[in-house]
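sorry to bug you again but im stuck and you know this stuff better than me. what follows is a protein written twice so to speak, once as letters and once as structure tokens for the fold. mainly i need to know what kind of three dimensional shape the backbone takes. anything you notice is useful, everything is just below:
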Amino acid sequence: SLLAILGIPRAMHRKLPRWARVITCRGKQFSSWNVSPQDPSYQKQAAESILANGFVVLRELLPRQDLQRLAAPLQSQTNAMISALEAKGVELEVGSSNGFHEVVLRSPGRFDVPCDFQALPAGLLATFEGIAEQVLSDGGKMKRAFAGVVRAEPGSEAQIWHADSPHVASDHLPPNLLNVLVALKDVTLEHGPTDIVPGSHTLTNHQRPEASFGEELLY
């Protein structure tokens, strides 16, 4: 099934196939974070799971035709960037400082290509943002931060466990950032999808007095 995963930045481990950001729970079913988009209260349930577990899994949130509409501008942008690198003979090194505004190599074989929100169907973005508003609403207005696609070439290395963003205080505060990962094609365990650690949105707080790690955990 095609998945949409929303979550607070947390410990993740990625080895992703092309056009996909996806999550797996080793093939098991966990009702506490598997929420059905067909349930009328799914947005409320999704928000509750994100706050409790750090993430939610929404299977078949988008009909296949809508998913194709979402994927089209992302794939077009990514194809253009990879083709430009190949045409110019550029071999990127890993890291933002070694890349370009248009494309970065996050790990060997794994490209990260930004895409303008304006290029994405607004109606489809509202599907995710309805949940984000419930999770992030703290008297302010939710803001879009980044959109893009991850392309991992076949055989690319797995990433180390990491958190995407730093904590801002030693105490566990309400979330101020939400990641949305959408699988743009079906992904199996053999493809090497994303693993996550439930509850790691609190355990990865490097500012806790008892923490035995620092910002080296950050992506």
User: Anything to note?
Assistant: Confidence is low (pLDDT under 50) at residues 14-28. The first helix runs from residue 42 to 53. The beta strands are 3-7, 12-13, 23-24, 34-35, 55-59, 104-107, 110-114, 148-152, 179-182, 194-196. The first strand starts at residue 3 and ends at 7.
